[in-house]
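Example 9 (inverse folding). The structure is encoded as follows.
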């Protein structure tokens, strides 16, 4: 069964760090080659934060998070985990963070999905990140 399960959100003071994890089921991983994190704050549009084209390992990071967030992918025999390490958090990083996955034609198609928005097939339930200043 295709499934994405996020964890790791919470409340932290500005300047602090959090690591978000997205557990990707085997079925989802086999059906997709493009995955990453979006975030959506109340009253704002959803925005792509970070993504990876798994076939080549090419990545996208939004300008707002470059130099502070790191995206990584790890695998074992049972599951794949997409992690987002967030350092030097700011109040404006407060958002619901959602993991998403899809099949993309190539790296450009995948990474553009985060910078310009595209429809992703698989979504997690989200994990809340709150940063207090």
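The amino acid assigned to each position is listed next.
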């Amino acid at each position: 069964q295709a499934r994405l399960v996020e964890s790791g959100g919470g409340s932290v003071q500005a300047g602090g760090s959090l690591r978000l994890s997205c557990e990707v089921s085997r079925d989802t991983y086999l059906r997709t080659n493009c995955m990453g994190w979006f975030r959506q704050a109340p009253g704002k549009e959803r925005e792509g934060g970070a993504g990876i084209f798994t076939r080549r390992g090419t990545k996208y990071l939004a300008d707002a998070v470059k130099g502070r967030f790191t995206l990584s992918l790890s695998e074992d025999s049972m599951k794949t985990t997409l992690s987002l390490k967030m350092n030097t958090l700011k109040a404006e990083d407060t958002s619901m963070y959602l993991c998403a996955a899809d099949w993309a034609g190539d790296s450009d198609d995948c990474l553009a999905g985060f910078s310009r928005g595209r429809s992703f097939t698989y979504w997690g339930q989200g994990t809340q990140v709150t940063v207090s200043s």
